[in-house]
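Ligand: S-adenosylmethionine. Inputs:
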Amino acid sequence: GTGTSQDDPVAPDLSRPSIARVYDYVLGGKQHFEIDRRAAQGFIDALPDAPVIAKDNRNLLRRGVRFLVEEAGIRQILDIGSGLPTEGNVHELAHAIDPSTRVVYVDNDPGVLAHGRALLAGDATTAVITADLRTPAAILADPVVTGLLDLSRPYALLLSGIVQHLADDEDPYGIVGTLREALPAGAYMLLSHFLDDDEPRATTLERGFLQGGLGTGRFRRWDEIRRFFDGLEMVEPGLVYANDWRPDAGTPAESPVHTLYAGGVGRKV
Ligand code: SAM
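Predicted complex:
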């Protein structure tokens, strides 16, 4: 289940908050430290309902994975910015439908590898690597990725809650474009993102991320998020508010942050 040459346990970097740990804290997990909780407080102070965004996003991911495996027939998943293990991990959701589904988790936070390794011991279908979205070609060429996934055959690329952490000057469109162009016909891309639906709360929250010391957290407009899907055929209902994407019995009927998050799934034709 694990694929890396570093075998030393990785000590968490406590000099600054980590996106993965702050997200875990906001989701109600246990893998966070004081510095992360303080960062989270930066945007919870800005908007007390902010933690609901994480829950709505996680719910969208759950429905998206189920669609991809159950309805679209996908059996290989590349999950970039996978986050720390939490309730309802992508490989667990996929394996509940088909245990042979292969999953590679990619995250630049070494804590994800450390925790993932323990979770995935003995699981030959799932691996985790430490790599950065900002070097997409290296991810696609990584021996663990190419060892477990056949990238010439349809797979699902998951970019859930990660692209929002790329600043405008980090070439987010070039990076996502590289990954999108590498998708073979029949592959899918799920992408979810903080949304600036022309409301002041988006600006307030963006400032909260900065104040919390996280540094990144971009709220992009509909047209800016839509551009990430350029050239893909959108799966119904398209790019929509997170909770409007194929809601099911587990989707909250009303969310206080309904208009602050968007997501969708595109298919390469
Ligand atoms: N995908 C999960 C989900 O939607 O529930 C977790 C989302 S969490 C908000 C974002 C994750 O992306 C964190 O675990 C963070 O470490 C990771 N991340 C942020 N920037 C990254 C980068 N440049 N390369 C790789 N991972 C990154």
